[in-house]
Amino acid sequence: MKSKKGGSQLAQLRSGLREAGVTTHKPKKGKSNEAGDRVGPYRKEQRRKRLETLMTSLNAFEQRTSHHKNDVLGRKVKGTTGRPGASKSNAIQVRRDKLLPELDARHRSSSFVDRRFGEYNPNLSLEDKMLQRFTSERQNRTNKASLFDLNDDEDSGAGPGLTHYGQSLSGLDAMPDVMHEDDDQDNIDSYQTQQHFAGFEEGHAERNKNDVMKEIIAKSKLAKAERQKAKDADDEMRMELDEELGDIRSLLYTRPNPELEEDEQQPKQAEASNDDQNDAYDAFVREMAYERRAKPQDRLKSAEELEAEQAKKLRDAEADRLRRMHGDRASPEQDLDDEVHAEHMQEAPMTARSRFGLGMSLDEQRENVSEDDDDDDPSRSEQESGTESGAESGTELDDGESDAQDAQPEFDYSQDSSSEHSAYDSEGAVEETAPGRNRSLVRTEEVPTLPYTFPCPTTHDGLLDILEEHQVQASQLNTVVSRIRTLHAPNLHENNPEKLQRFLGVLIDHLLYRASQCKNSEHDAEMVYLNDLLLHIAELTRLYPARSAEHFVAKFAMMQRNLTRGLSHDPLQPDARTWPALPELCLLRAASMVWPTSDRWHPCSTPLALLMAQYLAHARIRCLEDLASALFVCSLCVSNQRESKRLLPEVINVLYSICAILLPKIRVRGKLPAKQLAEQFGIPTPDLYANHTENLAITKDATPVTPLCLVSLLRHAPDTAQTRADLLQATLELQESLATMYTNSPAFVEIFTPVAFLWEVGAAELSKSAPILSGRLSSSANKLRAGLEHAVDSRRALRLQAHRAVSLTSYAPKFDQQGFDPKRAMDPDAERAQNAKLRALLKKERKGAIRELRKDSQFVAEVREQRRAEEDAQYQRKMQKITHGLQEERSEEKQQERAKATLRKRAGQSRS
């Protein structure tokens, strides 16, 4: 029977209950219903589900349906029906299961804090942690147990003891006159026991902590004495074995007697041949006997320790020298050491350490010790007479001098030159010597003895005073500087870095000073000693680059002021200081060797390049010395730019001018092709075919010298054909170096076309007067012309594009397939549309999060309101219960009062 669709809610409910088979009355319990008890839970679950379904169908607001405008048959769309009530109840249940426990536990802290000793100390191992914990626990137990221990002494126990009027009671036991009284019933017995010396009957007293510790200490001393006794016995046995070792070794080294009979030797030989293992063991023992005893070595030392050790050695050597100088008597051991050291210095070759005055290295000292040991042992010297002691130890230099000497190039003056026009004034780069005072280094055949310690000079005059005071030769200058640097190493004192920085400027000044003396000297060999100064300058520059750059830039500024002053007057005057002299050229060369010249921007290399370019661009050529100085500067520029290969227009122009000046005056059809070519390519040649350079042209043939030594030309350039030929040869080599360096340059053709033409014309002009130079020019011109032709052939001329034309990008309009809707956002930019979608999604998620947070707060508020209502109701019930109890008690009291009043009334009536 189906339920009625119409009717009231009650009629529909009854109809639904009948259809679902749900009845409200319970059947009577009997034997027939015992089987139904076993399926009771299943029936209850089915009944609950049917009731839920029935309530859902009867409640019109329990299910919400969303209708589409156009329904499609056969298509199922999710989300058309919803149950807001069930969703709300599920959300509340989820919050009750998850949010409510968190709310209740927000003020609870169930984290366990491990406060065990060393648990968070990573430096302690597990064994250390357990040992510390055990020790701490035992100490705590001992302190707590001994706090009220009456048997413990004051000194051994920790904590307060029993006192009486401020005095400890622990000392009463030691007093002989104090008698311990027992109870009243035992007074006589204790007194008689004490008076009749009956104390032997008492048992052993309980020992305190002091007695226990004394017993432990006694046992420890006894065990230590026993171990020492055993050790002494072992030492005695070992000494006895050492005394008998000689006899044992004699038995090992015993050789067969040749006088024995053959029949006696044959059994021994047969027995030895049968026992191979014993032979191998005997051979091994003999090898061990012949081995050299190992020598103990010093530990590895740091750089600071080595510097301090070297400084101490120099101070000790200086003290010995002063003692010998004053004639003080030394100990025999020191005299013997000096004699041995002198013999060793005579026999040993000159090394870098001996040259610097630093004595023997560690390896040499170890070799000397080993040789002494060998000399002391005659048997070992006889056994090792045929062997050599070992290879010689390598030389050592302090402060990295050996490394710097290998890394830094030396001065090469074979292609360097300078002019002799250098008048030094107050702003000159080199100081003049004071009149009447000879500051030159001593040049005597006898080498003077140098002290081992020197003060660190802060000025150049101070250095000259030191050199003059001790009569230092040029060959000893490196030793003096090395000892100054060793004694004032940066790690030995906090003021030493500042001293060394000032000493670096002093060395630069002395480099210029020595170069000026070499310019006036006739000995070219003294230029070699400038390499030693350059080595120290390079080392100090590595330590203090900023201060070194300041010193070099200051010198460059002086040179630039001298050039400007010379150009402001008449630059063609012979006494005008335009081209750099030998000292300034040495400074430029030193800066090029110390600093990196391939950097695009550098605090020292950039001013150096600008200064040399200014020399080449503005200085005028007047004589052969000027040509030598210009070639020196050009060679520096070429060597500096060999790595970076930057274009040097000043060098190219100056070399072209020098080559044109040295070549004879060339006329072709009444014109000067060299001059016209320079004007055509924009090469400035103010000194070409001028009156002051007409006498510099080559008129005779000569064989050029290779390599060219420009040191003599810096002092004085003789006006000979050989000098001109040498200068022309150097010019051609520099131009060839530039051609090789700029081979891959796009402007190679434009740069070297005038040079090739000049060489060809010059070779044709010198073909009669100087055939040797003409052949040299012809060969160079042919090589350069071949390179120019190859460069021209490798060039690609500009042309139109050879590929197919690329069509223009068309932007076709995008039509909306859904139709235009002004309410719908439509953005043609895909990226902007994607960003708008992300912003909309972010806004939606934010609103959803805010909604959920509001629901959470609402749920929390409802829970708190329910709990508050429950607490209020519980409080009301409690108060009502108390009030009810009080009312009952009061009513009982009133009933009793009324009963008593009734009894009294009845008693009064009965009496009356």
From TrEMBL:
It is found in: Nucleus, Nucleolus. Residues 901-912 have a biased composition (Basic residues). Residues 54-63 have a biased composition (Polar residues). The keyword Hydrolase does not apply. GO terms for cellular component: Noc4p-Nop14p complex; small-subunit processome. One of its GO terms (biological process) is maturation of SSU-rRNA. Residues 1-98, 145-168, 223-242, 248-444, 883-912 are annotated as: Disordered. InterPro entries: Nop14. Residues 31-44, 64-74, 223-240, 284-332, 886-900 have a biased composition (Basic and acidic residues). Belongs to the NOP14 family. This is Nucleolar complex protein 14. It comes from Malassezia yamatoensis. The gene is NOP14.
